[in-house]
Amino acid sequence: MTITEDAPTAGPEIGKARRRKEDQRLITGRTRWTDNITLPGMLHLAMVRSPFAHATITAIATDEAKASPGVIAVLTGRDLADGQGVVANAWPITTDQVTPTHLPVAVDRVACAGEIVAIVAARSAAEARDAAELVDVDYDELPAVLDLKEAVKDEVLAHPDLGTNTSAVWTLDSAAQGSGTDVEDEIAKAREDGIVLEREFRQQRLIPAFMEPRSTVCDPTGEQMTVWTSTQVPHILRFLVAATTGMPESKIRIIAPDVGGGFGGKLQTTPEEFATIAVARRLGKPCKYTETRSESLLSGHHGRDQWQKLTLSARKDGTVTGLKVELLADLGAYVGVVGGGVPVLGAWMFNSIYKFAAYHFTVRTLLTNKTWVDAYRGAGRPEATFAVERMMDELAAELGRDPLEVREQNWIRHEEFPFTTVAGMTYDSGNYEAATARAKELFGYDALRAEQQRRREAHDPVQLGIGVSTFTEMCGLAPSRILGALNYGAGGWESASIRMLATGKVEVLTGTSPHGQGHETAWSQIVADRLGVPFEDVEVLHGDSQISSKGMDTYGSRSLVVGAEAVVRAADRVIDKARPIAAHLLEASVDDIEFTAGRFGVKGTDKGITMAEVALATWTGHNLPDGVEPSIDADATFDPDNFSFPHGTHLCAVEVDTETGKTTMRSYVCVDDVGTIINPLIVEGQVHGGVVQGIAQALWEGAEFDEQGTLVTGSFVDYTLPTSADTISLVTDHTVSPSTYTALGTKGVGEAGAIASTPAVVNAIVDAVRHLGVSDITMPCTPERVWKAIQVGSAGATEGERGAAAHFDDGAPNQDSPQPSDTTEGGAQ
Amino acid sequence: MTRIHVTVDGVAYSDEVEPRTLLVHYLRQSLGKTGTVVGCDTSNCGACTVHLDGVSVKSCNVLAVQADGHEVTTIEGLAEDGQLHPVQQAFHECHALQCGYCTPGMIMQACDVLKDNPDPTEAEIREGLEGNLCRCTGYHNIVKAVQQAAGQMRSASSGSGETADATEAAEVSA
Ligand code: FES
Ligand code: FES
């Protein structure tokens, strides 16, 4: 059965809205999710997990479970202690970072609920799960630290043996590094004769909630151990399994088959993967573990979770002079593969698109007895963007001016690129004016402002709010030298190979590992243009360490800006290798050969030969120039010199019912500049998905624990992902400022939407009710919170006091105090 | 163990199943119909949606024994005579899938929505798909795909079916 394809059209592939090659199998159910894999003699695993947030394990009785029908083995952490490997942190952000040892299966002590303490292997998944219920574990409960601000005090320790909850303190200071003035000076000056705004924002904890639960199948029976796993990072996993178990890397084959979403949530090497490998090797049998959704929400890493303390100084005319950022970041019980690197990735982004004179950033990463925290779509950059975009709105409110106008006064103008920021990054290109103008036009900004004014004056119970977010982000992780300077444990390059088959077909091997991004389609478009071969003739292979043996995988909006750059370079090498062969076959000088649209021609003649003909002639090897090897295949590894900096303007209109606190989204417009667009359909899809994830942070999602450290949002009943009925259709458009750092001019798009949309929504809600004395609402902005904020605001603010900043110095955050019923914050330990 | 007789994607099966076996597990494990997937354990995500006698059900919420004597259609049986169902085709054309994990359930549910209401409004589509979660697409293109499929199915049933305008529509909006 075939898809009705769009008629092939002439012209370049790049820029064309190609329908995806990936779709055919996905829309017909011909998929290869890890959980679909069944091997002869395969055993099924079930995990026994700790119900306690912090406890010592005193005894584990497995006899009853072992006697249960179908059970082959029950193994505890102690049984597996040798050779189970370690779940590693790849980025100790400081040389003295405190990093607890993270064993896949706990041996003596558990540091968060959901930690694995024993594993049942049985003939069926149902039998394994039944038997897991029969494993009897005795725990001695220990005090647990669950609140970030409590953790700072070190009164209760997440890991008593470490002596502190602080994992690391990491600082970037513009005066110290010479990229700007001293922030304390600027704040002091502004206190004398300017504006100082002090705010504290909460970045609630989120759960990536990819739709495919994680699954791992390990077959230890071959010469190479083969592991299929639902991961974004097969290459990193291979390295870390080798590095921590002592297995030779050459004996390990990792395959990421079809992977159902990740969003950073599968940018991890997980206890479940290590445990499955350990059990399979111990039993000498293929083993499969597939998590339930509840296990996924509890034990897959979470995202965000910061307290953000911000001080912004400005002149009275609205020119921002300084921004000071002090973060507390919850790592949960263990430091994940990126771990403390997540908030650090935000360090260069709090100054965003603006020309601040001074900037200071400090993050303290903290260990608590909750689920570990690591990358989630945007990883550090959404948090930064949220903070600065909220602050710019606060500044505009303080000044009584339009928020876009205040932003424009402070942002980098298009003629100022390349621009080195106060944080020390050099932005390549951009045009904030153009994106904003387009967004305002699509949004009907002025008309909406006028309507807002009318409804304010009419005391409409349903108020209109307009939210702005002008964002930038850094994509393309990452120049290896910068990673080295930051103490990251690996490089940031990407690898590609192109194999020119005798029949003229082309195989592209990429080190990226897509899980919904459409690399098979986009890479085909790029190669089709570069080599002048039909789009249909390009086959993109990925996600198997025996096929694409080198790679750094997919995350951080890196695949196109780093991975595809490697593809381009490999293609150029193919052409370079084919050129002398073409010259030889055409009996011309190499200097006279021109390559255009897939054909090597001889200048000034109509003689020529196609790439496919060269490939065939190379394969036969009958008639090659002397000394030329019979191959035009090529490899390339690309290491970027810099990051890329996409940007955009997002505008959101909401209606807030001041009587119920309910927010209804009315329109959402985003104009993104992601550089050159390879496939507009895919880019638009990435923006849609990201925007909705960001909106979900603003309105609906939040991982919450009770005072015992139990995740109370542990199923899709309580962790409320947006549904089709909650969301609206979005208006998207683009401006294009090609990156000057990449051959293709691309900038990256995977995270843009999620980075930009959260502050747009919260700014809109606050804007709707600011005249009622509200200057902030904690996320997610539930009707209850909005309603309460209105009550407090209306009671508290007398005219003229509204703009006054609630200083955090007195210990009170400028938001509604969280209720014990809906969060652990402040919960007794 | 209980013996059941069930027709799945046009093929008659007869199997012994444990009474507690869920339909989705029977489909995946006994029949190898792995196109239908599991996304949750609380019947919230809809990834497992199939048709039971032509009506959409969450197959994680139905016991295999309840399907005894009935007809099940999964995503693998939706295309007929090598022709994709218009909803499948529209999902492809409108880029209504990214990772594709929600896609089988989403397509099966969309078919059901259109069966009940061949000319739904955007709001009706959004309501109709409420029980199916997608984490990748933000639903925008899914809604568009269902609208496009609806148009195509209506014009096909009125005898003037053509894929050209549908393709064009997607092209324009891209
Ligand atoms: S698996 Fe989630 S509803 Fe059936
Ligand atoms: S396409 Fe990935 S969950 Fe819907």
Automatic annotation (TrEMBL), chain A:
Biased composition (Basic and acidic residues): 799-810
InterPro entries for this protein: Ald_Oxase/Xan_DH_a/b (IPR000674), Ald_Oxase/Xan_DH_a/b_sf (IPR036856), Ald_Oxase/xanthine_DH-like (IPR016208), AldOxase/xan_DH_MoCoBD1 (IPR008274), AldOxase/xan_DH_MoCoBD2 (IPR046867), AldOxase/xan_DH_Mopterin-bd_sf (IPR037165)
Pfam entry (one): Ald_Xan_dh_C
Domain Aldehyde oxidase/xanthine dehydrogenase a/b hammerhead residues, every copy: 28-143
Keywords per UniProt: Molybdenum, Oxidoreductase
GO molecular function, one term: oxidoreductase activity
Stated name of the protein: Carbon monoxide dehydrogenase
The species this protein was found in: Intrasporangium oryzae NRRL B-24470
From TrEMBL, chain B:
MF GO annotations: 2 iron, 2 sulfur cluster binding; metal ion binding; oxidoreductase activity
Domain annotation 2Fe-2S ferredoxin-type: ranges: 2-78
Annotated InterPro entries: 2Fe-2S-bd (IPR002888), 2Fe-2S-bd_dom_sf (IPR036884), 2Fe-2S_ferredoxin-like_sf (IPR036010), 2Fe-2S_ferredoxin-type (IPR001041), Beta-grasp_dom_sf (IPR012675), Diverse_Oxidoreductases (IPR051452)
Annotated segments matching region Disordered: 154-174
Source species of the chain: Intrasporangium oryzae NRRL B-24470
Pfam families in alphabetical order: Fer2 (PF00111), Fer2_2 (PF01799)
Keywords: 2Fe-2S, Iron, Iron-sulfur, Metal-binding, Oxidoreductase
TM spans (from-to): none
Pathway connected to this protein: Alkaloid degradation; nicotine degradation
Superkingdom classification of source: Bacteria
Protein name (database record): Carbon monoxide dehydrogenase
